[in-house]
Amino acid sequence: MEHMPAESQFVTFSLGEELFAVPVTVVREILDHEDPFKIPHGPDYLMGLRDVRGQGVPIIDLRLRLGMTPTVRTPHTRILVLDIPLGEKDLALGLVADKVFEVTPFRRDSIEQAPDIGVRWRSDYIRGVVRRDTGFVVIIDLARLFSDGGPALAASVLPERSVA
């Protein structure tokens, strides 16, 4: 977190009862959920492709990617369209969230390191956690989550955009 500004903005969302956050700087837009075009033989968490303003964007069931139960669509289900920096390129993808809450600031000194135990997800996918009165908000390390164990997916299925 050392290279982070004193305060950064994050989009918060839920998967079940768990709260998560991603930096607002990687969020292109938030869309209502629509069923994507299915891609055969993809990983279980790849729901398919969706047209987003003329670009085919892979839609990811983040619940499955994190080892949770699959997403059940509700009126609150949203897709966060993200542009994730991976080296020299951006990886465009949509993450399915049960509900999107708000854009909120987190101070750098309020972000704690991910614990190695007591968390259901691999701690190396977690950039940090923020304590709230109601529990924790988990900040996801998007680059690690989508580059670890899936280079073939990133190279062959997920469209990339050059960094401007």
Automatic annotation (TrEMBL):
Organism listed in the record: Rhizobium quercicola
Domain CheW-like: 7-151
Pfam hit, one: CheW
Any one of the GO CC terms: cytosol
Gene Ontology process terms (BP): chemotaxis; signal transduction
Protein name per UniProt: Chemotaxis protein CheW
Signal sequence region: none
InterPro entries for this protein: CheW, CheW-like_dom_sf, CheW-lke_dom
